UniProtKB/TrEMBL annotation:
The organism of origin for this protein: Rhizobium mesosinicum
Modified residues (4-aspartylphosphate): 621
Domain Histidine kinase: 328-547
UniProt domain PAC: residue ranges: 224-276
Record domain Response regulatory: where: 571-682
Enzyme Commission number(s) from the entry: 2.7.13.3
Catalysed reaction equations from the record: ATP + protein L-histidine = ADP + protein N-phospho-L-histidine
InterPro entries named in the record: CheY-like_superfamily (IPR011006), HATPase_C_sf (IPR036890), HATPase_dom (IPR003594), His_kinase_dom (IPR005467), HisK_dim/P_dom (IPR003661), HisK_dim/P_sf (IPR036097), PAC (IPR001610), PAS (IPR000014)
Protein name as it appears in the record: histidine kinase
Domain named PAS: residues: 150-221
Coiled-coil segments on the chain, per record: 270-319
Keyword list, A-Z: Coiled coil, Phosphoprotein
Gene3D superfamilies: 1.10.287.130, 2.10.70.100, 3.40.50.2300, Histidine kinase-like ATPase, C-terminal domain, PAS domain
Record Pfam families: HATPase_c, HisKA, PAS_3, Response_reg
């Protein structure tokens, strides 16, 4: 309860002598305050509870009574509760002149005294003051319950990510660790796990490095981040990754490290296995090359060409493997972020004006949104970015971005554009091209720390014959050239590799050029880089010419809240095999006012539809074991042909061949995005 509803919270009265009880009940009734009188102290104590707003007792009822049961109840109150007591004393018997009455404060705690005979206004004033105090206690309970719920959901998210939480008190070396954290070091959930146990579990060859890194974080306040080997009690060697931040007191002194831990043994073993496979492949290629050189000492040109082809094959295989791994990681991370963002958004609505809780939640939301942005870059690199392909006027695009580009590069950099009056439209995604141009401009700015000129040029080019990079045909070339420090040949060859960056630590993800390269491949184009040390760098994005005319801008759509009756409460079938994500999505839908029925597999969803239950909409995850969301959509249409269907996916695009009339929503999505999509579906349906 947010306040004290009259129908739930009551004033409990114990005045066994005279007419005090009747008078108090009558006065409270006139004031609109429900009350209940107890004939004896035992029944009075038995009636006490969280719904008791205040207690009114006459002094003589407590004078010679056994107060142990009452005192025990008062001591057992939850931390948020301090039940207010009003003691009715005799004239001249106030606490200032009556030590016996004053001692009641020690037993009852939160006590106000009213001397009899009292004026009705005085009595009701004291009662209302006590009620206001009780309301604040109920509000405190709500805030505590909300924080407890937030903590529970955070622990659920940590468990879903297989992350162990830990905290080290720097003054006492007291270590607090979750069960998952203990398991990472080979300890059971109920075993003691001290800081000494943690240090002892570090591999002897890594111990000095670990302790030195820890000491540096404490002294400098830098984030603690390290990977090292651990030795379990059974003698087996594992790998752990620990990350933490330093918490300080108001004086700025570091008081504790708070962080998370993860078991990365499987990941490193997989990387090592891949490294060995690459070494074997390289050895075989090298051996084969030697055989060719010995057998054909005179077809050097042919050997050189074969070596180049084999190197390209190895590079393509490596990039494809990294792309598949990256896409899978981004998908799983999108699912995890879906639960975190959804729960945080809902939690934000229930913390009221608690500034600290709001600050913590906003910080977590910002971090989760940065994670979502990173997954979009990963998906672009993996060539799984969902592109809205259509005719794009490159001349209008560059002109329209002029102000944004200039603000992005700053006043020390001049932007020079060379754009012909007429260019054919290209076949591309306008949003992704804008993002690519902005990335290239920012890279060019970073290459000129002392300022300079960035030259942005558009031109039409023709590829007369097909090559390894481009098909034959007409292209529009978007080039961005800087006057910066440039790159040598070795650096230039690595420039489009994922996570490679020439920027200092913390100033780049190394995904900008790889993202643009992935975009170019999706568009059947290419990204070409040319650079020399001291002479700057030129990046060319080749985009195929479109055979269709450029489309006119579409009018802005009405926001979700203005879609009319179609946005009212709906009965929705929610299908997701991940219980954590299903719970988060169901909470968001329920918060929007919809009725939600959950199913955790395609089979279970079809049973719900087959039983004759009527639904306004089905929302389903795409990647589910046994039956995908696409297969479920086809089967559902056999049962309910007109049922609107929304498919959500942690991948940025759905696989080809899904020719159903369904809407899609990429994970992670916000509650607003979910509401907008539902509104569109209801209108179009």
């Amino acid at each position: 309860m947010a306040t004290i509803p009259n129908r739930d919270a009551i004033a409990l009265i114990h005045a066994p002598l005279g007419r005090d009880a009747q008078i108090a009940v009558a006065l409270l009734r006139e004031a609109g305050i429900p009350s209940q009188a107890a004939p004896d102290l035992a029944s009075f104590t038995a009636c006490l509870g969280d719904d008791t707003a205040l207690a009114i007792i006459t002094e003589e009822a407590l004078r010679d009574a056994d107060l142990r049961a009452l005192s025990a109840w008062i001591e057992a109150q939850p931390s948020w509760s301090d039940l207010p007591f009003i003691i009715l004393t005799n004239r001249g018997g106030g606490p200032e002149r009556n030590p016996a009455a004053a001692r009641l404060s020690e037993v009852l705690g939160n006590v106000s005294f009213v001397e009899r005979p009292f004026h009705a206004t005085t009595f009701i004033s004291v009662v209302r003051s006590a009620l206001r105090g009780r309301r604040r206690q109920y509000d405190a309970r709500l805030r505590m319950e909300a924080l407890d719920e937030g903590e529970r959901r955070l622990q659920t998210a940590l468990a879903a990510g297989r992350l162990g939480a830990w905290e080290l008190d720097l003054a006492t070396d007291m270590l607090t660790a979750s069960a998952t954290c203990k398991a990472i070091f080979g300890h059971g959930p109920d075993e003691d796990f001290t800081y000494r146990d943690l240090v002892k579990a570090i591999h002897p060859d890594d111990r000095a490095r670990v302790l030195a890194t820890l000491q540096n974080s404490v002294e400098t306040g830098s984030d603690y981040s390290i990977e090292y080997r651990t030795v379990w009690k059974d003698g087996t060697v594992h790998w752990a990754e620990l990350r933490a931040q330093l918490h300080r007191d108001r004086a700025g002194r570091g008081i504790r490290l708070v962080g998370v831990s993860a078991d990365i043994t499987a990941r490193l073993e997989a990387e090592e296995h891949q490294r060995r496979l690459n070494e074997i492949l390289e050895e075989r290629v090298a051996e084969r090359t030697r055989e060719l050189e010995q057998a054909h000492a005179t077809m050097m040109a042919e050997v050189s060409q074969r070596e180049r082809a084999e190197e390209q094959l190895r590079q393509a295989q490596k990039m494809e493997a990294i792309g598949q791994l990256t896409g899978g990681v981004a998908h799983d991370f999108n699912n995890l972020l879906m639960a975190v963002l959804g729960n945080l958004e809902l939690l934000r609505k229930h913390v009221g004006d608690n500034k600290k809780a709001i600050r913590l939640i906003e910080g977590a939301l910002q971090g989760a949104r940065r994670g979502a942005s990173l997954t979009q870059r990963l998906l672009a690199f993996a060539r799984r970015q969902d592109l809205q392909i259509g005719p794009v006027d490159m001349t209008g695009l560059v002109a329209g971005m002029a102000d944004l580009l200039q603000r992005s590069v700053g006043s020390t950099v001049t932007i020079e554009t060379v754009v012909p009056e007429e260019l054919p439209p290209v076949s591309a995604d306008i949003n992704q091209i804008e993002l690519a141009l902005l990335n290239l401009a920012v890279n060019a700015r970073d290459a000129m720390p002392d300022g300079g000129t960035i030259r942005i040029e558009l031109k039409q080019a023709r590829q007369p014959v097909a090559s390894d990079e481009l098909a034959a045909g007409d292209y529009v070339v978007l080039s961005v050239a800087d006057q910066g420090h440039g790159m040598d040949k070795e650096t230039l060859q690595k420039a489009i590799e994922p996570f490679f960056s020439t920027k200092e630590l913390g100033k780049g993800t190394g995904l900008g050029l790889s993202m643009i390269h992935g975009l170019a491949l999706q568009l059947n184009g290419d990204l070409k880089l040319a650079s020399e040390p001291g002479k700057g760098t030129t990046a060319e994005l080749w985009i195929p010419v479109s055979t269709a005319p450029a489309a006119e801008p579409e009018p802005a759509e009405a926001p979700a809240e203005n879609v009319g009756p179609a946005s009212g409460p709906k009965r929705i079938l929610l299908v997701d095999d991940d219980v954590l994500i299903a719970m988060s999505s169901a909470d968001m839908l329920a918060d929007l006012g919809h009725e939600v029925v959950e199913a955790h597999s395609g089979k279970e969803a079809l049973e719900c539809l087959g039983h004759g239950a009527a639904f306004d909409l089905m929302i389903t995850d795409y990647s589910m074991p046994g039956m995908t969301g696409g297969e479920l959509a086809r089967a559902a249409r056999q049962i309910a042909p007109r049922l609107p269907i929304l498919i959500a996916s942690g991948y940025a695009e759905l696989p080809p061949g899904l020719d159903l009339d369904v809407a899609r929503l990429g994970k992670p999505y916000t509650q607003d995005q979910l509401a907008q999509q539902i509104g569109k579906l209801m209108i179009s349906g």
